[in-house]
Amino acid sequence: MAKEKQKVVELEEKQKVVELEEKQKAVEVAQQREREFELEKLKIQLEMQKLSQTSVVNQQLENPKLEL
Q1: What span, in angstroms and rounded, lies between the C-alpha atoms of 40 and 50?
Q2: SS3 letters for 2-44?
Q3: How far apart are the first and last CA of the chain?
Q4: Cβ 68 vs Cβ 60: under 8 Å
Q5: DSSP 45
Q6: Which residues, including other chains, have CB under 8 Å from residue 37's CB and lie 6 or more apart?
């Protein structure tokens, strides 16, 4: 009887370990997605800056009296 109870406890502990590992993996995936999202956001911001600078340069070329 005690051995059966011990086996049940061991199985429950193994199940908890598996669940914790799955949760950890889910957290890692979520963190990776967040990093990818932030990188994409930075790329968009950089592209917007480039477009904005291009617009200013084009305006200067059209009207040389304007300054940066």
Answers
A1: 15
A2: HHHHHHHHHHHHHHHHHHHHHHHHHHHHHHHHHHHHHHHHHHH
A3: 85
A4: yes
A5: H
A6: none
Q: What single-letter amino acid sits at 51?
A: L
Q: What is the pTM of this model?
A: 0.63
CB 68 within 8 A of CB 56: yes
pLDDT for 4-40, tens place per residue?
999 999 999 999 999 999 999 999 999 999 999 999 9
Q: CA-CA distances (angstroms) from residue 48 to 36, 56, 64?
A: 18, 12, 23
